[in-house]
Write a structure and sequence with these properties.
One of its GO terms (biological process) is ribosomal large subunit assembly. With 430 residues, this protein is mainly alpha-helical. It is built from 12 helices and 2 strands. It has a two-stranded antiparallel sheet with strand order 1-2. Strand 1 and strand 2 form a beta hairpin.
Length: 430
């Protein structure tokens, strides 16, 4: 019991209830918000400050003892070696003994002459230094575009790696040639017929009426064709066959002709048996050919082949003398090819003006907006509008192959609605 005195009992609360939200411990959240407010009061948030405001670089340099490196010159090394040797106090008869190698190096440096190896090494060092500076210069320079970034097409260097440019997405995707082609050559807004004006001339108005008349006539012809093919093939309710007429028609010829049918069936079976026994014609002794007849047939075939070969050679040799007729034939063929090409070009132009089938539905031209003769008023103020502007624009999009033809979707209910009665809303009937 003594150990549990200082401990706080854990509360088990349902956090999905609004009344228990006030009892949740939010001390950590409040500490975080208080710290954030303190930072904002004292110069801003630390997490949003740049590095140069949080850290500084110490520029004071401490003294470092000089040490011999590989880059230390040979003259300095020789002088240091000589000074070390002199400090060893190896003196004989008032003279300092200098090491032979150090003396040679000093004499050589005093003369200023360089050996072949030293000259080559110096040349290599200069070349390496120049190459290193060139690499650093190239690395520091930023790449500059040698082409117009906003142009339609960019010329790329042949030495550039295409795979690298594709992977890094620095190379433009090849644009297809038909990207900027319009789906149709038709104008977005077609010019209406002059007869559709609010005050048209008599000829233009009659021409528009004739055009609408032809459209309606074509529709009636199509409806009549469908009626003749479907509805007209079936009788009406008054002319429909009854059960008795169907039974009489189906039982016609079944009684009184049994014997004839049995005779016909027997004859047919006998004929079938003969055909089954011998399918090929009989071979007679008189029809068999002897050797003389076969030899004559062979000679006749060979003679026909020779005559055919001579005829082909004669035709081939005669072609040399019919150059004019050959030229005329070539000209005639070229003329036919030109006519076919012109016909094909016209078909392509007509096809460009037509509407393509983009979906399962076919595009139907809207009805012509016309006014009858008694509806013409001659004044724009009294004119009643025809059609609908939004429908006209939508039909234009369909005609220009931008939107596929559509119909309004019908809502079908798959199952019957079920009615449920809740206990809380139950109707008590008394």
């Amino acid at each position: 019991m003594e150990n549990n005195v200082g401990k706080k009992k854990r509360q088990r609360l349902n956090k999905n209830k609004k009344k228990s939200w006030r009892k949740v411990d939010i001390s950590e959240v409040e500490e975080f918000l208080e710290d954030q407010r303190l930072q904002e009061r004292t110069g801003g948030l630390v997490a949003e400050k740049p590095d140069d405001q949080l850290f500084f670089v110490e520029k004071k340099v401490t003294d470092v003892p000089k040490a011999l490196t590989r880059k230390t010159s040979r003259k300095v090394k020789a002088q240091m070696k000589l000074s070390e040797y002199e400090s060893s106090q190896q003196i004989e008869q008032g003279k300092i003994k200098t090491p032979k190698r150090a003396r040679q190096v000093l004499e050589k440096l005093a003369s200023g002459k360089k050996s072949l190896t030293e000259r080559q090494a110096e040349k290599q060092r200069k070349t390496a230094k120049k190459e290193r500076q060139e690499r650093l210069r190239v690395r520091r320079n930023l790449p500059r575009a040698t082409y117009d970034l906003w142009a339609d097409s960019t010329k790329m260097d042949e030495n550039e790696d295409i795979h690298y440019l594709v992977v890094t997405k620095k190379r433009r995707v090849n644009v297809p040639s038909h990207l900027r082609d319009k789906p149709s050559v038709l104008n977005a807004v077609e010019v209406p017929h002059p007869g559709a004006s609010y005050n048209p001339t008599y000829e233009d108005h009659q021409e528009l009426l004739m055009k609408a008349h032809n459209v309606e006539k074509k529709k009636q012809k199509q409806e009549k064709r469908l009626y003749n093919a479907l509805d007209a093939q079936f009788p009406k309710a008054g002319q429909a066959p009854t059960q008795e007429s169907i039974l009489a028609e189906m039982s016609a010829g079944l009684f009184g002709e049994d014997e004839e049918e049995t005779n016909v069936e027997q004859k047919g079976q006998e004929g079938d048996d003969v055909l089954r026994l011998s399918n090929n014609p009989r071979v007679r002794r008189e029809d068999k050919k002897d050797e003389k007849q076969r030899r004559k047939e062979k000679e006749k075939k060979e003679q026909e082949k020779m005559l055919q070969k001579e005829k082909e050679e004669r035709i081939h040799s005669s072609t040399l003398f019919r150059v004019r007729s050959i030229k005329a034939e070539i000209l005639r063929q070229e003329k036919q090819l030109l006519l076919k090409a012109e016909k094909r070009r016209k078909l392509q132009e007509e096809k460009a003006l037509k509407t393509k089938k983009l979906g399962k539905l076919k595009y139907d031209n809207p009805d012509l907006e016309i006014k009858l003769s008694d509806e013409l008023v001659g004044s724009l103020r009294e004119l009643k509008p025809e059609g609908h502007l939004l429908q006209d624009r939508y039909k234009s999009l369909q005609k220009r192959n931008i939107v596929e033809p559509r119909v309004k979707a019908k809502k079908y209910r798959r199952y019957k609605r079920k009615l449920y009665e809740k206990k809380t809303h139950k109707i008590v009937q008394t």
